[in-house]
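Pasting as-is:
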Amino acid sequence: MLRLTSPRRSPQLGFTMIEILISTTILMLAMGGIVLFLAQELRVYYYDSNRLSVNHDIRKFTQDLARDVDSASYFMIFPDYSTRISNSKDGNVLNGGSGDFLLLVSCAYCVPDSSGNPSVNGTTYTGLTLGKNYIYRMVGYYRDTTGSTTTPPTGPVRRVQYDFATPADPTAAANQPTPIATLMNSYLPTSAQTTNPIVVQLAQGLAAGTLFYNYGQVAVLVRAQIQENGNLKNAVNTYTFTVAPRG
């Protein structure tokens, strides 16, 4: 007698829907963790890069400032780049005062050269008076907060320099009663405040108007928060250093 048998069912290949959902969930969690890790590494990378930029900026700032201070005869500190006169006198702050504008003045006495002609700082000129102390260079560092909307205001530190074609006599009648202010107005005009070269991109200052501190009329204490804008976070370092003119 012929017996008919039904064919065996072969086992199903592949994954069930539940297995697929579990695998997808695990994969998504793993990918999420990787993305978070990469984002954190990017934050660290940009922050460290900006810290390096801050250190580079402050090194350049200190080197440039130290070089200029070393060749200066004396310094004056003003509240800001626009303030030049106070009560009909030069508007610089005195011992213990601070401001955002440091002016370095280089001067030398007029002496005869080898031919007996008047010379200042090794250069011969005509029409100068022997024995007088003449200004031959002015260098300024100042914090430019024009247009800043932050509190305290931030802005770049700019540098300005003027070398006199003929050394200036600060005691001349044309420069009285504010000799330095008169010379600054003529050769370091306020109209150039936003166009002079930048030496540091962003400087908050510990508070407005205190980038430079007059220490005993003999040294300048520089107190600055130098900031770099990163893609994900700002890097800020606070620096304090002291410089003193040779004069």
